[in-house]
Input
Amino acid sequence: MNIAVVGTGYVGLVTGTCFSEMGVHVTCVDVDENKIANLKEGKIPIYEPGLETLVHKNVKSGRLHFTSHLEDVLNHVDIVFSAVGTPPDEDGSADLKYVLAVAKTIGQHLNHYVVVVTKSTVPVGTARKVKEVIQSELDRRGVNVEFDVASNPEFLKEGNAIKDFMSPDRVVVGVESERARKLMARLYKPFMIVSDRLIFTDIPSAEMIKYAANSMLATRISFMNDIANLCELVGADVNMVRKGIGSDTRIGKKFLYAGCGYGGSCFPKDVKALIRTAADNGYNMRVLQAVEEVNADQKSILYRKLVDYYGDETLLQGKTIGLWGLAFKPETDDMREAPSLTLIDLLLRADVTVKVYDPVAMDECRRRIGDAVTYCHNMYEAADGCDALMLVTEWKELRMPNVETLSSKMKGRLILDGRNILDAEELRQAGFEYHCIGR
Output
């Protein structure tokens, strides 16, 4: 089978590479000619564990190709995946200009039957718009070419995307015809040998599933952060609360960890888009509005704890604060909507010197904010001379610091743990004042 994947960002590149690993002949397409040139040279534009090895392997095998011209491969493929970006517009809605631009190109050059699959996270009704654009271009050309549209939302976790794709807990496909269903079933058959987790739905339901799933996970996070903040006020321990409610099989243990807020490319964008979709249809998503408000507030919680420690915001001037972790989560360099950006902004406004360390996201931070902070080569350099230290991202290498080294490096003794992963007792015995979330 031959397929094209349009868009070589996080979703597109992982999708194309993993399909090629299963024997499918894949051409990844991107209008960014520089990105395509780099990919042809083996330069991967994103950090994702295992991805670079798979890309090199499948390029060498001849199953994975790259081009900047969809029209050159369109009529040699059975399926076209649209995995282009859908950034949030000013009103929070998903911007579909790239998705519809792909549809227009398809309509301008299509000469045989294909299934056009939306892989990007898009609002309900997008497939209908894609179909209308393609048909409009075919009508303009005066040709009659059959095609189908489908929705196949992705459920990839950054840092674990390869495993998620190769061993999915479910694959959701929204289709309108039996012909499209059979073609998509054939494509995913190699992934279903151990257990059939392929779910076919109507297209609007498939489009809604991704938004509903991400919004539910975001809700669990904000709910636990709300509970954690109350725990601090009443003297409870959120970790004990988490274990207690997580043992209830109706609730489960996942996504119940309190912290300094969620970020990334999916949760913030998808919550906003679903709220906007509801508003466009005359409905008010009250729960999700609260989820968003709690998360926005939670991103500044470490800063508020810092101010409380010193007693007044003006007393922060001239202090040096270290940040451990910049990415919104471990095993990625993604800093979109990351809590670290909120903290850095607040600290710089308070005339604080900020030292940072992250295993992989330093270049991304520099791209975003330049040299506004001091970039350090390791975790202890980031703590050197600091009045306080904030742990923002729960990278494994940050979980068990050498307390003697830390004590010799830091000027002050305040540690603010935004992910509740450090050993409070060990740090306190070493003379540190330790604060975390919800305890």
